[in-house]
Amino acid sequence: LGLRHDLYIGTAVDMAALADPADPQYRATVSTEFSSVTAENVMKWETLEPTRGTYNFGPADELIAFAKRNNQKVRGHVLVWQNQLPAWLTTGVNNGTIGKDELRDILRNHITTVVKHFKGKIWQWDVVNEAVSDPWDSPPTLHYKGFWAQHLGPGYIADAFRWARAADPKALLFYNDYNIEAFGSGDPANDKTQFVYDLAKALLRDRVPIDGIGSQGHLGTQYGNYDTLQVAAALKKFAGLGLATAFTEVDVRSVMTPGVQAGDSGEINPRLQASAANYSVLLQACLADRHCLSYTVWGFTDKHSWVPGWFTNPPEGLATIMDENYQPKRAYNLMKADL
Ligand code: XIL
């Protein structure tokens, strides 16, 4: 995809697909269409430290070497998250052999080791991912959710940013989450964007080194379309705090109709049209704001997308900008027109 002078267009990269000799098109597309890459999985804790104290940096280093050869920037994903943690860690905490002080040491060590290993090679780090609950969680009042808040309290967020900054002072440090594309009621009890805004403001007040807000951008055509100005307004509010922004994991999924094949030729498929419109709304909002540094899609072909494996009831799919045969869909063409 083309470039605005300073907007990076990225994709999540599936390392197995990148290495598959039977799928050369995947590799070719990553290198030619994108100016930034994110590891879809290989920088997550379960991959990096499958056994306590034993690090497996190989696959992530391969991605970094690939990016260097292709002159691409790398988004680091992810330092602190409640998902894809190694069993030694969750089991140890749950059975009481790892207590609170030790857990905090483990987190500090992990962040320090990982960020130092990649020092100078990561443009933006997702330091903390998905720390805030959703209105459908229990209790419905928005709160800090998940393993880390539960065991360390919400102070782990500030700690994580401080430890990451100490390990690589030049990397941009992001808080990353979904369903924060636009403001809602403005009440932090039920407006997740407002809750994250308040979090960022409090971190800055406490002189915590945070540089940006990552808005994942996992959308679905069944939820209707965002409006460009509404999304631009949210980016602008974060920029008003002095923060950078980025769309970090954009995809726009659809509920699959049993027996109906997706196709963008012949009859116009309304799902593909709605998907394209959502891709474009986020892109235009980002293009309109110089603080929005990058726009990353969470995979670019339906051949390698997390959506069908994750959203199964009802089955969802068609979330990326190219079909399973790498044929560009309306979303790709519309993005190209925007750029
Ligand atoms: C997903 C990956 O795409 C899948 O391959 C994996 O099985 C689960 O995680 N939010 C995030 C990403 O921050 O790390 C998730 O990636 C998608 C949701």
What's a quick, concise take on this entry?
With 339 residues, the chain is α/β, with parallel strands linked by helices. It has helices at 15-19, 24-33, 45-48, 58-69, 87-94, 100-117, 146-152, 156-167, 192-205, 228-240, 270-287, 307-310, 330-338, and strands at residues 8-13, 36-39, 73-80, 124-129, 172-177, 212-215, 218-220, 244-255, 292-297, 316-317.
What does this structure look like?
The protein has 339 residues and is of the alpha/beta class. It folds into 2 domains: 35-214, Glycosidases (TIM Barrel); 217-339, Alpha-Beta Barrel (TIM Barrel). The chain contains 13 helices and 10 strands. The protein has helices spanning 15-19, 24-33, 45-48, 58-69, 87-94, 100-117, 146-152, 156-167, 192-205, 228-240, 270-287, 307-310, 330-338, and strands at residues 8-13, 36-39, 73-80, 124-129, 172-177, 212-215, 218-220, 244-255, 292-297, 316-317. Strands 1-2-3-4-5-6-8-9 form an 8-stranded parallel beta barrel, surrounded by 5 helices. The structure holds (3S,4R)-3-hydroxy-2-oxopiperidin-4-yl beta-D-xylopyranoside. (3S,4R)-3-hydroxy-2-oxopiperidin-4-yl beta-D-xylopyranoside binds at residues 40-41, 129, 216, 249, 306. Belongs to the glycosyl hydrolase 10 (cellulase F) family. GO terms for molecular function: endo-1,4-beta-xylanase activity.
